[in-house]
Amino acid sequence: MGMRVALDVSAVPQKIAGAGRYIAEIARRLPEAGVDTTLVTRKNDAQRWSNISSAKLSPVVPDNRVQRLAYEALLLGSSGAAKNSDVWHGPHYTMPHGSKTPCVVTIHDLMFFTNPEWHEKSKVAFFRRAISYSAKHAKVLVSISDFTARQIDEFLPGHAPVVVAPLGVDLTRFTTDASNDRLLFEQHALRSDVPYVFFLGTMEPRKGLDVLLRSFAELAALDPEVELWLAGQSGWGLKDLEAQIAAHPASARIKQLGFVDEAVLPALLRQARCVAYPSRGEGFGLPVLEALACGASVVTSRGTVMEEIAGPTAQLIPIGDSAALTAVLSEVVASSDSLRAQRSHDARERAQTFTWERSLRQHLAAYEQAK
After folding, report:
1. Residue 14 has what DSSP assignment?
2. 240 and 158, same structural domain?
3. 119 lies in which domain range?
4. In total, how many domains does the chain have?
5. How would you class 193 by CB atoms within 10 Å of its CB: exposed for 0-12, middle for 13-18, buried for 19 or more?
6. Which residue, 155, 203, 207, 296, has fewest beta-carbon neighbours within 10 Å?
7. Domain of 87: which CATH number?
8. 169 pairs with which residues across the strands?
C-alpha cells in the first residue's frame, strides 16, 4: 500500500491566491504523484475541489469560520479522514489537537510574531497560539523558504524538525509568450497602448501600497503617460489606502482591477513596464516569482524573502523608501528594448529554478519523515 495523506483544504477561500494557490497546487499534484490523497473540505465546498484535484474528498468541516476552527481543533483529529491516513497535512499553520495521526504543518511566515501590527488583532492571538502548538506537536514542519526557516529557529525554540519546500510556479501558464496578449487585453476591456506599473497582491497595510502610491505621485509628475494598475482582492485596513487614492494627484491614472481573471494575469505581468512589489514582509512573495516567470522587470524590498527568491534578477529598494522606488521605476519604465529583453531572459531563467515538482518532492520527504 502506498502512502495515505489527508490534506486539510478547508481554509482556502473561494478566490484562490497566495497560500491558497500553494494548497491548490499540492492538492492537485499529490494524486498525480501516486499518493492516496484525501482532501478535507468544508461541507459546501466539495464540488470546487473535485474540479481542482482527482483526490478523494471528505466534506466534513463546517462552513462558518468560528465553527470550522473549533471543529478542526477538537474533532478533526478523530475523523475518518485522519484515522484512515498515514499522515495529516495542515497546510496553513494549524493542526488538530490530540491527533493520533502524525501531522505535518506548513508554516508560511512568522509575521504574527515579528510584526503583529500587519495583521488584524483578532487573528494575531489565534495564530500565535496555533503556530506555537503546531511547532511542538507536529512531527515535521514545512517551511516555504529558508527565510522563514531561520525565523522558526529564532521564535519557536524546541520546534519539530523543519523541511524547507520553496513554492513553485506553473511555467506553462506563466510564460514569456506574448502572442495572444493584445487579444486578451481586448477581451478584458484593457488598453494595450498604455505604459503601466503593475502591482499584484491582496490589498492590506503590509503590502507597501502606501509607498507605491507616494512613489507614483512623483513618477506621474515626470511621465505624463504612465499609469498604475493595481490587481488583487481586498484585504483589511483599507480606509487609509482608499483615502490616499482618492486624494492622489494622479488618481485618474490609477486603475483598480480587483481580483483578475487567471486567464489574463500572465499577460498583465508580461506587458507591465515594471512589476512593483514593495511589500514590507512575506512568507514567500509568490507574485514576484510569477512575474519573473513572465519575464517581467521586478522591483521589490531588500532584506525580505523576496530578495531571496528573486536573487540578482530584481531591482531592490529599502523597505518603505518611496524615493528609491521612484528612482528605480523611472529607470525601468524608460529602459531600452534591448535592456528589457536581457532582463526578461534573466528573470525567466531565475523562475525556472522554482518548480512545483521540486516543492512536491520536498513535501513527500516531509511526509516520509513524519510517518
Report:
1. S
2. no
3. 4-168+355-370
4. 2
5. exposed
6. 155
7. 3.40.50.2000
8. none
**Which residue in 106, 169, 119, 198 sits closest to 309, CA to CA?**
169
Distance CA(24)–CA(32), nearest Å, equals: 13
Q: How many CB atoms lie within 10 A of CB 25?
A: 20
CA gap 339, 193 in Å, rounded: 20
Mapped onto helix, strand or coil, the DSSP state of residue 95 is: coil
365 is a domain residue: yes
- Per DSSP, helices labelled H in the chain are 19-32, 46-52, 65-74, 80-83, 111-114, 121-137, 146-155, 181-187, 209-222, 239-246, 265-271, 286-293, 305-310, 322-333, 337-351, 356-370
60 and 122 part of one domain:
yes
**Where do we find the cell 462552513?**
63
pTM of the model: 0.94
Cα separation of 371 and 359, whole Å? 19
CA angle 261, 266, 269 (to 5 degrees): 110
Q: Which of 271, 297, 289 is nearest to 169 (CA)?
A: 289
The CA distance from 157 to 175, in Å, is: 41
- C-alpha cell at position 253: 491614472
Share of the chain above pLDDT 90, in %: 87
Identify residue 123 by its one-letter amino acid code. K
Strands 36-42 and 56-61: parallel
Identify whether residues 122 and 17 lie together within a single domain: yes
CA angle 81, 87, 93 (to 5 degrees): 90
Q: Is 338 helix (H, G, I), strand (E, B) or coil?
A: helix
List the 254-258 sheet strands across, edge first.
Answer: 254-258, 227-231, 196-200, 274-277, 298-301, 315-317
**Cα dihedral angle (308, 310, 316, 317), rounded to 10 degrees?**
-60
Whether residues 284 and 196 share a domain: the answer is: yes
Cell matching residue 334: 524608460
* pLDDT tens by residue, 295-344: 999 999 999 999 999 999 999 999 999 999 999 999 999 999 999 999 99
Residue reference for cell 497546487:
25
